[in-house]
Write a structure and sequence with these properties.
This protein has one helix at residues 23-32, and strands spanning 37-41, 55-61, 64-70. The protein is α+β, with helices and mostly antiparallel strands and 71 residues long. The protein starts with 22 loop residues before the first helix and ends with a strand.
Length: 71
């Protein structure tokens, strides 16, 4: 029987710190801090809700991050 895989760890980083930043700057900073996937979305976008370790989501309004969350 194969071993159960160990999920990757997430960066010790608060999503709240990205709110208010320009979207491009926030994405670049998130990648530098170790987020494997960074997803920028328009307000009200229809998205899948599965939790993915290492993914940071941004809701972008007017070119700035209005909301950020893990998964």
């Amino acid at each position: 029987m194969a071993p159960i895989p160990t999920p990757p760890t997430e960066p010790q980083d608060s999503p709240d710190g990205y709110v208010g930043l320009e979207a491009a700057d926030a994405e670049r900073l998130a990648r530098q801090r170790g987020w494997a996937t960074v997803r920028s979305l328009p307000p009200g976008a229809i998205i899948t809700m599965e939790y993915r370790v290492g993914r940071l989501n941004f809701e972008v309004q007017g070119g700035r991050v209005a909301r950020a969350w893990k998964g």
